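Input.
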Amino acid sequence: MNINRLITVSILAIVSFVLFIYPAPKGIFYDILGVIVFVLIIAILFQFSTSEPDSTELEENENHEESTSVNRNLIIHEDLQDQYEQLLNIVFNMISAINENYKAAFYMFDGTGQNLNIQFSRSEIFKNTLKINNNILQTILNQNEAVLLQQSDVREDWNELFVEKTWRGSECVFGSRVLYKNSPVGCLIIQTDHFSNIHERDRVMLTSLGHFVSMGMVKLDNIEKLSLDNYFHYQIANLLNSLDIQSEVRGLYEKVRDLCRTFFSYDKLTIAELQNDGENFKVVMEDGFKGDVDQEKSYSITGNIFGKIFRTKNIIESTNLIEDFNEKGRFEDGDLENFEFKSMLSVPVLINKSVKYSITLEKQQSQVFSISDKTLLELLALTFGSIISWQQQYWSMRDNAMHDGLTSLLNHKAFLDRFGEEISRANRYNHNIVFAILDLDKFKRINDTYGHLYGDYVIREVARIIKENVRNIDVVGRYGGEEYSILMINTTVEKIIAVAQRIIEMIAVFPFNFDNIDVRMTISCGLAEYPNDGMNMSEIGRASCRERV
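Output.
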């Protein structure tokens, strides 16, 4: 209520009290004044009932409306901001690995659902806010797969996405939507200056990146839910604080073990993993009682209690394993007699709707695990599975981004990154590196005469021959179209010449045959040695062109 109106009503109330109640004076003047005051009170009350709310009321309503609209969208809490930024950094590093010429931005819906606001970008060509009614955005948000569009086909809508500049028409845009709870909440947008920069597999990779971000959003939401209740949930939510998505899975096992030690009472903790054959599992982490299981051994999922969770996907609860189960052993027949465990609580860890792990608590006495134990272990399994699936998808995409799609060798960028790493390592340990560059002779005639399918066949076979004739510690890459590169670790040119000559000779005599067409190929090789021929990649590359085998 407005403060001025409150004062006015208060004064009129006092006057009314004096006129009508105390001391209740008599006379025509007081009668007329009383009528006037009564009419004024009625008028003011009517005004209060029909007037606009004051600024305080408006502010309260606005805050309520804003809270309501924001709650309809994914909220990244401050305590999860580091994980959110890590997710986006990983995605943009992947995009750069796919193609260093790609310019990318990630957008998410604002509270109104009518605009997309930029969240992250490493380029200034993208506008900060995009209208949802843009046809390009609508196409991206309504497709499961990544969308590819050329500027010349969508000129009007194109200009709504990017800052004003001159476009040639050959530019392209990739888009992949990001889902949260099966609904679009944003999208990745990638721009490149010419369609010739785009490889066939890039659309698949970008689709995977969109799914990767979607999975990350779900993971953040799961972690957020776990952080709302108590200290245990808070510890689970901070599981990622000490884990890098690029770290090995062993570190995650150890974190789960440490949490279980803190919050559960047990005689034995077991984390088991289903093997790729789907028929066997292995114990990847155990804590407490030892000697009842061999971590190097695979156990069948049939005929034992531990395998039951992989078969049924159900939680196992028991205070008497012998009476509750038909199986004769925990891992294999007879081990229940040798190792007397009575109580078990085992929960499945789902990855892509399949049980890939189990987390099991056991006691040697017949004791009931509490409802709280069950709830907390399920929450831990949920988080564990979410992180594992996130890591697996990251490593899969990273592997695809680093390797050439045709030969499976390291691509040009990944090879150069590895080159720099090996130079740094050579400096630390004071050893030499040999760089070899190999180039197929007159390869253009193969494509021109027999077609690109035959050319691809030759490229693959040569890559195989090179890979089979170097050591496991050596690094092989596809340097260009028909060029290959090798880093030979901790050796010299003198020792490597025989290897290079063997590769050259094997390619020269290899009977290339594809589609009943026989050809012969030769290859040239240049060698250079670090640090004798140069102190950096550029100098060594130039030296390799001078020293031919």
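Residues 412-546 form a domain with the Alpha-Beta Plaits fold (CATH 3.30.70.270).
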